[in-house]
Fold these 2 entries.
Entry 1:
Amino acid sequence: MERLRIVFMGTPEFAVGILDTIYQHNHDIVGVITAPDKPAGRGQKVKYSAVKEYATEKGLTLLQPTNLKDEAFLAELKSLNANLQVVVAFRMLPEAVWKMPKLGTFNLHASLLPQYRGAAPINWAIINGEQHTGVTTFFIDEKIDTGAMILKQEIEIGPNELAGELHDRLMELGKDAVIKTLTLIESGKAATTLQPVAGDLKTAYKLNRENCKIDWTKPGIEIHNLIRGLSPYPAAWFLFKDGEKEWDVKVHETEFIAESHDKATGSISADKKAINVAVQDGFIRIKSLQFPGKKRMAAKEVLNGMSFSADAMAS
């Protein structure tokens, strides 16, 4: 049995949970690779990645390359003498990087591959109304999320579960999957399964302003799934129009009420606890939302300080 010498690559909070588990299991982490620092927010204050903060706190060797093909970086990476690389929520690696360690480079992906390859698997599983998802470990190859699979673990998605909640549960599942994968590789027992190259495969497209906008003409359950699949971040949004006033409003929590009615699609009404938007097959009850420049608020808080006309519309 060859003792593992691991280089870990990752950037966001999801990756930190996995890195910490590897650390807590006393594996030898010889280096951590994360994104370069970048200015963020109105003050353009330099922001460190969540992985950098963790690695710095633990005194781990840290590299922040801007170019993964840079000869100086590749030489520094090679000097760490890792025999395995673990990748969680990082960017696409060039062949010179993923082929470097003797035991290979594996990735943890937050879906049941081959479904939901791509940048936002947690979000799209909810947006598409899936009832199950999970995590997969696989050896990286030259394409995105297509390599030979090592391990899969599955969980159910709750009917009203938000992306943030599923993120946290998948991180816990991912911790277990990564430790099991490390054990298999270390003991030489990591059997792999090739991913199918064809079939009815769904993609986890990168999220942008356009695919986060609510289309109120769609069935209510699809709208509800979009909103919970984007909550809390980056959040679904719509244009709230009342007379000459117009706001970009983010929506965080909703409920779909299936009901026949004669109201115009997109018309807005309110009761004491929620803002209701009419859709073709019922109402979307908005429970929490965020107006521009404001913090996220419960709908009843918004209604305490705001009134709108009977002609208000969502678009």
Note: The first strand starts at residue 5 and ends at 10.
Entry 2:
Amino acid sequence: MSENKNRILIAEDDRDIIDLLRLYLEKEGYEIISAEDGLVAMDLLLDEKPDLAICDIMMPGMNGFELIKKVRESDNNIPIIVLSAKNQDEDKIRGLDIGADDYMTKPFNPLEIVAHVRAALRRFYQLGGEAAPANVFQVGELCIDVEKVLFTKNGKAIDLTPFEFKVMTLLMKNPGRVFTKVQVYEHINGEYFENDENTLMVHMSKLRDKIEDDRNNPKYIKTVRGLGYKIERI
């Protein structure tokens, strides 16, 4: 096995796609295990403990949505990249909603897949496989200390409302991950209603005023059209 030593599971019922991804990923030094069935993929996740999974949606035995849901219910936070021909916004939202870290569509450029794998592993294992401090999260110049209820930019404290603090905690714990508006609001208030969308937009606008150098060209909080919000990893 090469120096990368990261093991990647490819859960995909198309053998040609598995072989193509294996070719490119092994060239980058990753060890590949694969499954053409969702049930087999689940067994491999439990037994082989891969470092990342690339998951199709339409698979026999257990589809990708069910697989991701079961993985997250088992408290396994392995990075999961969805690779699917299902390219509608509602499919992407559902995939991200149940715990996928990334959602890519077919047809695809294998070099782009490699780049996304590399980025996901770097984000997740940025401290050499060790867990990050449980209560402190940093993204670029921003730092949030959950235990002390302290938010700073370049070491300077910024006052946030309780709602804003919870939003920043959610986003900064998961840099690069897109959260739908429903996810964000339910995380804060536990329930979401249609008229809450405008309220959330106001909160996000005020947050940008506080943390961005230029609120019209935000560096950190990004709106993902048709999906929701994410915070960029700087």
Note: DSSP finds eight helices and twelve strands in the chain.
